[in-house]
Design brief:
12 helices, 300 residues, two-stranded parallel sheet, mainly alpha, single chain
Amino acid sequence: MPLDGPFPHFPREEDVSLASMLTAHPAAQYRKNPNFYRQYDGFYLLLFSTVLVTFAVTGFRPLIGGPDWWYLPALPALAYGVIWCHLMVHNATHGNFPKAINRIVGEILGVLVVVRFASWDITHTRHHRYSDDREKDPHPNYPSFWKTVSASIVSIEKVLIGQYYENFGDTPENHAREKRRAWISYGSNLVLIACWLWVMGPWFTVLVWLPAEAVGGLFILHFNWVTHNGPHATSEDDMKPVNLKGFWPTVGNVLFCGIYAHKTHHDYQRLFHPALALWLGRVKEHPEEVESSQPSAEAA
């Protein structure tokens, strides 16, 4: 398997078999089909609305009761699990699981982290194509971490809309389609969260699950910021993918699938664990692109 290709090969346009549809990447389907995103989120909206109706009709009761002492250790454990779900969805966007299960892994884990696989796949493809482009990167980085957080939240929907117009035309009809798509997307998020709320119960959802999801999301944004040179950047021009070195980045690479070898990930996107590939000598590092995890002498 090539290590340095941007993304796995997508099915040929004429290949419309069920097998190809179940293994194709959403980003490829999105580029070919102007209705894809509405159909995708519409499917999830219908699916989870049906689940909610089933819960109501059958009298399903939440699996977890009121507050308990074990909520406290459950929060960091669940947050760690949420982070790993995001990391594995990330690997699925690069086709790093066997083709037969890659889409399935991405879809299941995408439901667990709420955002769903298509959102990850489409926006992350865009991120690698336009990394640190303030207009086209769906999660652009700035020297300020919290500006990065706010910009990422706003940019995802903005970039999705812009990408749709690039692919299918900036027309009044497409403006209307994107408005409908946005409502369907938000609605699918709400019914999915409602399903988790019903399954886990209000106490666990509010005190453990929602904070764990928030921590997981902030962690992903922080690792993307710090590995795009955020702590050392003095201007937007300084933002770029870097490998972090030092004790804590090494610990992070052990705990989080090598994500702090981020320049290597951008160079070799088909690596499941870029730091491990460096340690084993499977790929070479670019020394001029390596940044220390410690402040520079000038910064100190």
